[in-house]
Amino acid sequence: MLWMHYAYHYFANFRAEAETKAKLEKVAEIKRINAQIMAIKSEISKYEDTLKEYQLYKRFLFSVTPKVVLLFIVSILLILLYYFYICSPR
User: 57-76 pLDDT, tens per residue?
Assistant: First the structure.
């Protein structure tokens, strides 16, 4: 009967170690995913800052540029977009 007692404790310890290892792996995975989330949030924040800066430049340019020149620039840009994205061979 004593051997059953030892066997029970051996397998109980074995199972506890396996569960501990699995839990540590899950915790490590959660930390890794949280680090990825933080990196993505940082990247989004950087792009939002860049967008705000570009919008500021846009407002400035629209405020100092006559409307006729703006129409001319926009038409040239549309022609270039049409040429490079529609007419160019793929």
Answer: 888 877 877 777 778 888 88
